[in-house]
């Protein structure tokens, strides 16, 4: 049957996000969303029985579920299995760090963006790396086949190190490798690395690159009705200001990218 999937339910119940009651929400089929189960605040948290998942992306999911009148069901899989999960029909969509790239668009269809982020380079505190030129001869980790890896490959003289294959928590694996001095830097999105670098005793942000990567919700190419349903709901969240409310709750230090 393939890989076992861990599934959990979470209803969107915040008043600012709700347009329907919980009773109404439970009358329709769940919205099954594939995600990585990892700790990457303020983007998302590890799932717990008490709180489910929290963060910006779970907040977007809750708002979508409320708009569609559908409870959200998280299908937690390794990073490399998220797109295959929707292609197999194990999930309706991926809502987890999917930059809209030509490579991914060849595999799945995307909604309009729900976020636009730049990228950051995280290092061990005190390393002294301040620019791409300082990465010559150094190992730079990033998730394989990601926009972050594409950026790492542009650093002249750096040695890109892909992470992801066979990992249940690729984000934690990269940070552990950085701390263990197996790599010298990690490339990921500013939404995660700016706060981590400012508060963690072992890591600091070396620099950011303004790549303005658009993130969308990925849906199997053989489910155009599902794509239209989710994209329409997202458009309504943007036009009504409800997406802006979620952004300001979880990402108050970042500029909202879709106007006021």
TrEMBL record:
Residues 30-254 form the Solute-binding protein family 3/N-terminal domain. It comes from the Bacteria. Signal peptide: none annotated. The keyword Signal applies. The keyword Signal applies. Pfam families: SBP_bac_3 (PF00497). CDD domains: PBP2_peptides_like (cd13530). Keywords: Signal. This is Amino acid ABC transporter binding protein and permease protein.
């Amino acid at each position: 049957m393939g890989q076992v999937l861990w599934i959990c339910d979470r209803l969107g119940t915040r008043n600012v996000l709700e347009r329907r009651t919980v009773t109404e929400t439970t009358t329709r089929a769940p919205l099954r969303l594939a995600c990585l189960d990892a700790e990457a605040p303020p983007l998302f948290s590890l799932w717990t029985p008490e709180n489910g998942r929290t963060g910006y992306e779970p907040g977007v999911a809750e708002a979508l579920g409320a708009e569609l009148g559908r409870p959200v069901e998280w299908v937690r899989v390794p990073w490399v299995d998220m797109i295959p999960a929707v292609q197999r029909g194990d999930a309706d969509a991926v809502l987890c760090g999917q930059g809209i790239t030509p490579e991914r668009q060849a595999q799945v269809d995307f909604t309009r963006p729900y976020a636009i982020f730049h990228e950051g380079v995280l290092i061990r505190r005190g390393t002294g790396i301040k620019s791409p030129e300082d990465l010559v001869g150094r190992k730079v980790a990033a998730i394989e086949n990601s926009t972050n890896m594409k950026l790492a490959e542009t650093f002249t003289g750096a040695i890109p190190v892909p992470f992801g294959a066979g990992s249940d928590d690729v984000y934690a694996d990269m940070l552990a490798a950085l701390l263990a001095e197996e790599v010298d830097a990690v490339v990921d999105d500013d939404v995660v690395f700016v706060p981590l670098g400012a508060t963690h005793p072992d890591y600091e942000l070396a620099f950011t690159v303004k790549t303005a990567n658009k993130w969308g919700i990925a849906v199997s190419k053989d489910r155009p009705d599902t794509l239209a349903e989710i994209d329409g709901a997202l458009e309504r969240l943007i036009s009504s200001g409800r997406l802006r409310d979620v952004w300001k709750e979880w990402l108050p230090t970042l500029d909202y990218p879709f106007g006021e």
